[in-house]
Design goal:
By secondary structure, this protein is of the alpha+beta class. It contains twelve helices and 18 strands. The strands form five sheets. Strands 7, 8, 9, 10, 11 and 12 form a six-stranded antiparallel sheet that branches.
Length: about 375
């Protein structure tokens, strides 16, 4: 479960990690009232479970209550990468003297945890890792020992953070361990002009498998594509590209994403319909993909095992019938192989739907989907 920023900061506060004072608003009027209570310049921040809020205009400064109301009106309802901002966090503006980056995450490859700390925060950590990898200190964390005061001081020293940051790093680890989190990230972690260490942002992913041990935030339906997919029992993740991807099995979908990227296009999503998908599941998946306005072509890549290719083909035909004109808006490239593949291909051929193209290989299908997304 990914938490909203305000939920992550509530968690931080319970563990003694300093955060700016603020509260959540669902209307511009509430934002005005919160700003008046804070009695200081504020920042109005869209609450969505995705990055890039600042670049999208979802984080706005306001000098006072009236400005906070105006900025909240601009941000509420904003669509940021398919996520609709239904709430804003209104918090006191905090001027950083220095900005850092700190994160603890599960390192699945090594079967442990990893600390990542840098004296350069407030920017895309992926960009920093690519351009200046030495700027990020990476330290494996033994699950049996965790992060004590000495380890936290070592992390701060290695990364070039002031020693005042060490207790905050230790508490961030406490959040990771005691809350059964998969990721705890602060970007930026700041040092104020008054030399106070403050978590200016917060990103936390909790392990759903440990939910029985905790009182978790209630689930919420925001109307996002992720929520719509979850309601249909689909494993869907929104990405930034233009080629919609549907496959059966996480491994095949991941491979398909790589092949699409190798063909010169960016995937628009990850969508796994599972190992025993029915025609209805296939139809639901295609409906979700075509609801994304960023998708310019769709690649359906299915290897039939438990999932029979004729069920997939029937699902595509059914979905296009239900979608009507929306189903004609973008081309769909289909690659079927394995169980009942010949039957599935015949079903699609007999349907003669104008947007469906069949390709026999995964590489060929990805190349066609990439060309169609580019308008070629």
């Amino acid at each position: 479960m990914d938490l909203y920023e305000y939920q992550a900061k509530e968690l931080f506060g319970r563990h003694g990690i300093p955060v700016p004072p603020g509260r959540v608003a669902e209307t511009p009027g509430q934002a005005r009232a919160i700003a008046a209570e804070l009695g200081a310049p504020v920042v109005v921040k869209a609450q969505v479970k995705t990055g890039g809020r600042g670049k999208a205009g979802g984080i706005r400064a306001a000098a006072g209550p009236a400005a906070a109301e105006e900025e909240a009106a601009r941000v509420l309802g904003m669509d940021i990468k398919g996520h609709i901002a239904k709430r804003v966090l209104v918090e006191a503006a905090t001027v950083p003297f220095e900005e850092y980056y700190a994160a603890f995450l599960v390192d699945r490859a090594e079967g442990g945890f990893l600390a990542m700390v840098s004296a350069q925060g407030g920017m895309e950590i992926e960009e920093l890792a690519a351009t200046d990898p030495g700027a990020i200190v990476r330290l494996p964390i033994d699950p049996a020992t965790g992060v004590d005061a000495g380890t936290a001081r070592l992390l701060a020293a290695k990364a070039g953070l002031p020693q005042a940051a060490a207790p905050v790093l230790e508490r961030l680890w406490t959040v990771m361990a005691e809350e059964d989190a998969l990721l705890v990230e602060v970007n930026p972690l700041i040092c104020t002009t008054g030399q106070q260490i403050v978590a200016l942002d917060g990103k936390v992913t909790l392990d759903d498998n440990a939910a029985f041990r905790h009182e978790r935030p209630a689930g919420e339906r925001t109307g996002s594509l992720e929520d719509r997919a979850r309601a249909k029992g689909l494993n869907y993740v929104k990405l930034d590209g233009s080629v919609g991807v549907i496959g059966n099995g996480a491994g095949l979908v991941m491979s398909t994403l790589d092949v699409v990227a190798g063909a010169g296009a960016d995937p628009a999503n990850f969508l796994d319909i599972g190992g025993g998908a029915s025609a209805q599941v296939m139809a639901d998946g295609l409906e979700i993909i075509l609801a994304d306005p960023d998708v310019r072509s769709v690649l359906v890549n299915v290897f039939g095992g438990i999932t029979a290719c004729d069920a997939v083909a029937n699902g595509i035909v059914t979905a296009l019938e239900l979608l009507g004109e929306r189903g004609h808006s973008r081309p769909i490239v289909v690659r079927l192989d394995g169980n009942n593949a010949e039957v599935g291909r015949r079903i699609l051929s007999d349907a003669r739907h104008p947007v469906v193209r069949q390709v026999s290989t995964m590489d060929g299908a990805a190349e066609m989907a990439a060309r169609l997304a580019a308008g070629a």
